[in-house]
Design a protein that fits this description.
The chain has a domain of 88 residues. By secondary structure, the protein is an alpha+beta fold. The strands form two sheets. It has a four-stranded antiparallel β-sheet with strand order 5-4-6-7. It has a three-stranded mixed β-sheet with strand order 1-2-3. It has 19 helices and seven strands. Helix 4 packs antiparallel against helix 5 and helix 5 packs antiparallel against helix 6.
């Protein structure tokens, strides 16, 4: 059965459509990011950047950070038109991933989604149809490709939705309607809706509806009979979330990406429409043959890597089970697990740096080192607090402090609960190192959130 699956073929138009849509969405997203002045705000202005564990070497490069975005934008355009595709998609993956890793403060689930999709596209023949490469070289022109080439993208989308739905199976989301009970009433400027968004039953309707939607939408899209209804729900859901919440281009990315579930006839119609705009005909691409799945050593290595990669994507979100305390409180294993908009946390942190040998002590004004956005994110995330503590240690060492100690008074409120002490104030954070181990200096959560 497994071998038979790899003998199945599908139209190359589907992958070509996804390549074109993905490239254009990424180009527009990068232009939007730059137009808002966010390159300077998030990467150039701050004097300190929060990094990912193991990727501390990935940092902004001053004014040359703009060059990374330019390279990424050019690569996205080349991906869209399918010109020098292999070089383009690899360049896009590397530059976009570098951008994502430059500062942890800007982490978003959809940035991670873009990274993993672009990595997978590096291994797919997305330029074999309706591309400049295929137009110029008939040797890489194919009408049909192995079915797994498009199915793997569907699986990635399925992981996002289903895992987001599973994450909503918790008592805060379903029983308390948190954090939607806090967020929805904030939309006071929306006519008609503003009244409804203050109603408790609406908060629960959104919570339960969101959970059911995430768990069911992939199955609706896989079934031909329910696909149009499923797509209607996708549009309504993501347009509504875009109106209610400031989540950038993610809704549009998900709407356009979900079109991959439709039959290839739709993708051909879309490509034919685009071709007509540029006075190009699809006929030249219809002369291709089937791209036969090869099983050379190199191809086996590629398939092996993608198999491992997909297994990793399925298992990695469950790493939180390796940690003992409440996930929403410690956030150990929270990122990169498709937990979308599940909690509202707010924190207060006050750092004290002391030199006990010379009897010196100073309370830190965080605004001297962090932007307002960085301080807000740092205040309730333990790995941020630890990294900032080490920065303060190094900074005041240079100011003459001998063997400085860093302590923090930290309070965090989670999903409407009263704030409580977050970090053990007796712990010298300057001596604690980042690792994958449980952070024992995070104080216990005084409540229980039941669920996955």
């Amino acid at each position: 059965m497994f071998q038979n699956y790899f003998k199945q073929y599908t139209s190359a138009a589907t992958l070509a459509f996804f390549r074109l849509a993905f490239g254009l969405m990424m180009l527009l997203s990068l232009i939007r990011f730059a137009s808002y002045g966010w390159i300077e705000k998030f990467y150039i202005t701050p004097q300190f950047h929060f990094t990912y564990y193991g990727f501390e070497w990935v940092k902004p490069v001053g004014i040359y950070t703009y060059l990374i975005f330019i390279i990424c934008g050019i690569a996205a355009f080349m991906v869209a038109v399918g010109y020098k595709y292999k070089w383009a998609i690899v360049s896009f993956f590397l530059s976009f991933t570098y951008i994502e890793l430059m500062d942890k403060t800007t982490y978003l689930n959809h940035y991670y989604f873009i990274t993993i999709v672009s990595l997978v596209l590096c291994f797919l023949p997305a330029n074999c149809y309706f591309s400049v490469d295929a137009y110029k070289n008939d040797k890489i022109r194919f009408q049909r490709i192995p079915r797994w080439n498009t199915d793997i993208l569907k699986v990635l989308l399925a992981i996002v939705y289903i895992y987001a739905g599973l994450a909503k199976l918790n008592s805060d989301w379903l029983i308390e309607a948190m954090p939607l009970k806090m967020w929805l009433p904030d939309n006071t400027k929306i006519p008609v809706l503003s009244y409804l968004l203050n109603q408790t039953w609406v908060h629960y309707a959104f919570s339960w509806g969101g959970m059911i939607y995430d768990l069911a939408i992939v199955f609706l899209m896989l079934n031909k009979k329910t696909r149009k209804f499923g797509f209607f729900l996708i549009v309504v859901f993501h347009v509504l979330t875009r109106i209610l919440f400031p989540i950038g281009v993610f809704p549009y990315v998900m709407i356009i990406s979900s079109l991959i579930f439709f039959e290839p006839t739709l993708h051909k119609k879309i490509l034919a429409f685009v071709a007509k705009l540029f006075s190009v005909s699809l006929v030249v691409f219809e002369n291709g043959k089937d791209k036969v799945q090869q099983y050379t050593f190199f191809n086996r290595v590629q398939l092996g890597f993608l198999t491992f990669f997909m297994a990793f994507q399925l298992l990695f979100p469950f790493r939180y089970l390796c940690y003992p305390d409440e996930l929403f409180w410690t956030e150990e294993g929270y990122r990169f697990s498709w937990r979308v908009m599940l909690m509202e946390k707010a924190g207060y942190t006050e750092f004290t740096v002391s030199d006990k040998k010379n009897h010196k002590s100073i309370r830190i004004n965080n605004t001297h080192f962090l932007t307002a956005f960085q301080e807000k994110q740092m205040a309730f995330q333990p790995d941020f607090i630890l990294e900032y503590a080490h920065f303060l240690k190094e900074y005041y060492q240079k100011q003459g402090f001998e063997n400085p100690e860093v302590h923090v008074a930290s309070y965090v409120a989670l999903n409407g609960r009263l704030s409580q002490k977050y970090i053990d104030p007796s712990i010298n954070l300057a001596k604690e190192n980042e690792s994958f181990k449980h952070k024992t200096w995070i104080l216990p959560f005084n409540d229980t959130i039941k669920g996955l």
